[in-house]
Amino acid sequence: MLTATTGFAFWIIAARFYSTEDVGIASATISAMSLLANFSTLGLGFGLIRFLPGAGDKSIKMVNSCFAIAALVSLAAGVIFVAGLPIWSPRLGVMRAHPIYIASFIIFTLLYTMSFIADAVFIAERKAKFNFLKNAAAAVIKIPLPIALATAFAAFGIFASEGLAMAAALGLALFWLLPRLLKGYFPLPTLDRSVISEMLRYSLGTYVANTLWLAPTYLLPLLVVNVLNSKTNAYFYIAWAIAGIATQAVPNAMSSSLFAEGSHDQSRLGRNTRRTLGASLLILGLVIALTFALGGRVLLLFGRQYSENATTLLWILSISAIPLSINYIFLTLYRVRKEIPMLIVVSTGATGLSLGLIYILMRELGLIGVGIGWTLGQSIVAAIVVVPLLRQSRFSRKVTNE
Looking at CB atoms within 10 Å, which of 20, 23, 62, 352 has the fewest? Predict the structure, then answer.
């Protein structure tokens, strides 16, 4: 709730101090950076959650090896993305206008990647409070930055605020939180194949599935800004960010806890799956009701034009939280069971269906088509997986009782 509240504050400030075009460009750039960062982890975050609990005295080498691999991949990904901007996202060409912009994008992508790895370490060791401290620090630090950078940097001021805040939070994680978690820890680049070879094989499979699963989350702002325009993307992104508290944050947090607990004790996986599903639906029902009641007023905080253009979209996106939560839990159950082919099949189907429907409906209906396509795609997948999900949770209970 703290990070959600400060996230609201950050984008309210951005909407007040920057033009809608700047908000649209910056939000698309942040999405591109997040997509590359997720891509660059190679699934090592999931590998850490699955294997770090049993690593023993090899824990530090495992963590630093994951940091080193992810950092190298993110550097390459950042350079390739910037070099090819005229091809895959011409409207973000402004980010190539100055060497500082280019260098910042590459560096911030690297830091974001390492931040995801750090989060996974905390989850693996069942220290979620450290995730809270790191991400809360980033959220609080970034609030005043867009005001300070507004005059000189336009859209880049919003993007730099996000990156600088994450840099400070990552420093907190590397030099204070991780040493408290792993005795004798120091962030020293390491590449030790002996401690990550098995984990890497598992990670690459989950990486493919997770990249496919998360692709729409980060591709949508890029799709909207290029198919429609940057101003419309500003309206979309604000609604997407608000709805994301329900559609992304709650299911992701609940499924991450399920994954960590399942990795520590599979004998209770069926019971924990049912409890996670029930708790998620209860929380999301309340969040959706609040969104319908207060969504338009919340958008007024960003400006009247945001409320007028994005309220209906926000309502539609909030509904998608229910099927999305079912899909998240289904994938988590199979991730714990190491059934990677099923992860890839479901992730591919969900992404292909959602993006296809969004592209078709967006061209016909405009901004509303994005919300309808996303919600419809996730609902179709949830309708397919909900029966196997319930069957598998009952099977896990039967095995446990026996």
Answer: 352
pLDDT band at 400 (very low <50, low <70, confident <90, very high): very low
* pLDDT tens-digit map of 157-198: 888 999 999 999 999 999 999 999 898 899 988 888 777 777
Contact 101, 238 (CB under 8 A): no
d(CA 93, CA 2): 34
Q: What are the sequence ranges of the domains in the chain?
A: 1-204, 228-402
Residue 374 has pLDDT above 70, yes or no: yes
Averaged pLDDT for residues 62-75:
93
